[in-house]
Amino acid sequence: MAASHKSGKKRAAPSQNGPKAKKAHLESTKPDKKRSQPITRPIASQDSESGSESGSDAEFDDAEPIEEDDSLEEADDSMQIDTQVDQRPKDPNAARESHKAQKILQDQRRAAKPHSTLLVDAKKVWALARQKNIPTAERAKHIKDLMSVIRGRVTDIVFKHDASRIVQTVVKHGGQKERDEVASELKGKYKDLAQNKYSKFLVTKLIKLCPSHRASILYEFQPYILRMLLHRESSSVLADSFELYANAYERTILLREFYGKEAGLFSLTSGSEEDKERAKKGLNGVLEGADNERRRRILGSVKDNLVTIFNNSDKGAVTHAIVHRALWEYLTAISTVPEEAEQEKMRKEIFETCQDLLAEMVHTKDGSRVVRQFLAQGGAKDRKQIMKTLKPHIERMCLDDEAQLVLFTALDVTDDTKLLAKSLVSSITVVAQKLYSSPQGRRSLLYLLLPRSRRHFTPAQIASLAETDDIRSRTSKKSSTSREDEVRRAASEDLIRWVEQSGESLIREPAGCLIVTDIMLYGEGDKSEATTTLLRALSSPTVEDPHPIDLPPTSRVYKALLQGGHYNHTTGTIERVPTASWDSSVFANQFLKVVGREPTVSMCLGSGNGAFVVAELCEALVRAEAVDGRRTLKVWFTEELMKEIEGSEAKGKKVLLEKLALL
């Protein structure tokens, strides 16, 4: 029966449809840049909090239009009317009359509120303009109509929660002309807007999308920065502005109040280009040419303002990059104080003020530099206190680009490697399974074995870590080579055991291959069980397809282990590790015993990279002059088999036959 309702029209074949119609151009869905998140914040909280601006977008794009703030009052009236109706005998028309009464009351309240007509008109157009899946041209028309409704009246409605969302839509989807027009109308109101629960999102959007007005908006904030940082609503506006949108000069505007009133008398954030360049130097620019007494007063003001932030850590401002920049500038300026004893005293005082809050700072560039500076300049007691503060967050720090540099510096400067092994190294190796899949996590594991290796760390990261080398040379008694060897030794046992337990699954993933290779090459300790685990993956029959040797990253693991090191593309040579760390000849002999004849021969006839691996096996045996192993391979690879390999389409067969001829 169902078939009788089908249409008789058939769908055209793909070849008859002609070229596909172009899709209508829709708005870009590229995600907005987000602020770095503190490592102390729960992961669930970070996922749900997408930033002040994007959170606002979701609110006004997806929510139904909100009428007014009198919804609760209407609900109360509705309950009273319903109660009265229940007390009377039931009447079929009672509910209808009740709804009419509520509607009349609602309309009267709405009409009595200021700008009611304007809001009603604006919401009608806004309902069209805020739709997601409409062409750009149609949206532009609606935005133009919406702007004509609110033009000249933006300041009257922007503080209302629903009307603020209307203005945000204009700013988000409008052209630069409409954005600049809104920004101009709101001049002089930005501080109040930033402190409002609803309009703060609009301020963030204007700072982002109106670069020509950004400096003037930030100037309105300048005298109130500290109070705004401690304010529940405006704190996020300043944090986004500083970290995401402001340029170097505009950041100095936000930092100026940290320097105190005396520094504010000498305006360096306006005027000539020369003044602007000087302003970009931050606190050092303010202190240029100042005598010692004035220098002390300005540094004292900076310290007092920072202490105010630290003493109100519950407000959340201590996690913001602007505070970390001010603290970094203060630590840098301390080094210009003539008396060394006074320098140490000032550093000690600021450290004692914020030592319990350091975990709130490590996620930003400047915050990371601050904590690394404290680690390098502090004594053994200070370093122990810092590590105690950071220890509950080590796993999260390993996965953060900036925070992990703090851990690396701790490994670089701490002389007590036994304490380091217990408090830091073991905390990293125990979560290796959770870390290896991300680039940040792999770096955290590899730094234990290969600190500052150009193979795994960028020049920028190495340069950043090298900032504390000069201080380390004065505060550390142990040589860096000795410390690195002790850290590597402490980490190796857990990492090698991890390969023993999970090696077969790790080598089937590109990320796992990267970490397994270097653990085997550079780790110190008994690797016989780990070696057996890796070779068993090649010998045991598996239902998984493809075979491990046919995976390019996996085949490179075995090639590197048989070569005894990594291939250097610059020099075109193999950089072999010392045999005390890894002996490729032992691995080659173990390969023959564990893998066996059939799997080894099958590798050479497959379509993967097995022939290259067996070629390296031959070379390893020749290099080590392993007579028994070479004899075994000769027996396995008969003349008949070599002819079969020559006639096959296996990759690397030419290289393999050349290596077999050398046996």
TrEMBL record:
The entry's keywords: Repeat, RNA-binding
GO molecular function, one term: mRNA binding
InterPro entries: ARM-like, ARM-type_fold, CPL_dom, PUM-HD, PUM3, Pumilio_RNA-bd_rpt
Protein's UniProt keywords contain Membrane: no
SMART domains cross-referenced by the UniProt entry: Pumilio (SM00025)
GO terms under cellular component: nucleolus
Acidic residues composition-biased segments: 56-79
Low complexity bias locations: 44-55
Region (Disordered): 1-114
Domain of life: Eukaryota
GO biological process terms on file: regulation of translation
Biased composition (Basic and acidic residues): 24-35, 85-110
Biased amino acid composition, Basic residues: 1-12
UniProt keyword annotation of Cytoplasm present: no
PUM-HD domain segment(s): 123-452
Entry-linked PANTHER family: PUMILIO HOMOLOG 3
Name of the molecule in the record: PUM-HD domain-containing protein
Species: Psilocybe cyanescens
